[in-house]
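Regression test case RT-17, inverse folding.

Input:
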C-alpha cells in the first residue's frame, strides 16, 4: 500500500514539475508511463494478496466450525462416560487454545483485508 502511495506521489510530483517546465515533455512521458505501469503492477499484487487472505479466512472459519463439532463430540463422550473428566478437561484446554489461535488469525487477516 505504501509503495502504491509512493507511485501516486511520484506521478503528481512529475506532473507538477512538468507544468513548471522543469522536466521536458519526452522525459515526462517516459517517466509517467513507467510510474503508471509500476503502480498497476503493485495494485494487481495487492488485489491478489487480499483475495488470498480472504480465502485463508474462509478456510480458518471452516476449521473453526470443525473444531466446534469436535468439541461437541468430546462433550458427548464425557457425558456418556467414554472418557474421564481429566481427559475431558485436557482436551477442552487444547480446544480452547486452538480456538483462540484461529480467532486471532481471523481477526488479524480481517484487519489486513480492510
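Golden output:
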Amino acid at each position: 500500500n505504501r509503495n502504491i502511495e509512493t507511485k501516486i506521489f511520484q506521478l503528481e510530483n512529475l506532473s507538477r514539475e512538468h507544468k513548471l517546465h522543469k522536466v521536458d515533455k519526452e522525459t515526462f512521458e517516459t517517466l509517467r508511463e513507467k510510474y503508471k505501469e509500476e503502480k498497476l503492477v503493485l495494485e494487481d499484487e495487492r488485489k491478489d494478496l487480499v483475495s488470498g487472505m480472504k480465502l485463508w479466512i474462509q478456510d480458518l472459519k471452516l476449521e473453526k466450525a470443525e473444531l466446534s463439532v469436535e468439541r461437541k463430540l468430546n462433550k458427548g463422550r464425557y457425558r456418556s462416560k467414554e472418557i474421564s473428566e481429566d481427559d475431558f478437561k485436557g482436551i477442552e484446554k487444547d480446544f480452547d487454545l486452538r480456538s483462540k489461535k484461529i480467532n486471532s488469525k481471523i481477526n488479524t487477516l480481517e484487519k489486513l483485508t480492510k
